[in-house]
Design brief:
The structure is a single chain. It contains 5 helices and 6 strands. With 183 residues, the chain is an alpha/beta fold. It has a single domain (3-174), classed as Nucleotidyltransferase, domain 5, CATH 3.30.420. Strands 4-3-2-1-5-6 form a 6-stranded mixed sheet. Helix 4 packs across helix 5. The chain is globular. The model has no long low-confidence stretch (mean pLDDT 95).
Length: 183
Amino acid sequence: MPRFAVIDTETTWRDRVMSLGAVIADSATLQPVETKYYILDPEFREGGMYSSALILRREDKNAFSAREEAMDDLLSCLRAHGAKQVFAYNARFDRAHLPELASFGWYDIMALAAYRTYNPHIPRDAPLYSTGRLRRGYGVEPILRLLSGNSAYRETHNALQDALDELTIMELLGHPPAAYRPL
């Protein structure tokens, strides 16, 4: 797999996708190759817990689009890069909200990040289930704080920035994409 995607969504109060961030990354280096950011109209107008994070940068000036347009553009981008795998933190959530990407292999970053077997940064005294998974504190924010050593890190809940942060988690964990198991 030469390239893959890391995707994050933010949803409205009625559980509809209002924004979508995607990072196309190189499988060997885990570095971003291209980013995509979509604010779905009219969905974003419903509002949601993280509506204030729908931040536009100058390069995001064309971020507003109808869902069908956004998904067509994203699918075209994924095909152009040969990306057939989609990674996400708590991937079941994003996969359930993006049926247009059902034909892709989905992989959960949390499946490695939250387990001591795969994440040696988890402290020895951390409360774990018998499976070795953290009992609490395994969201993006606490895991990225743990891996990076940056206790001031705050998750933005901007879909593109969160997708970039999730790619950073993969990089800091140090496992190749092939180490993740499909959902």
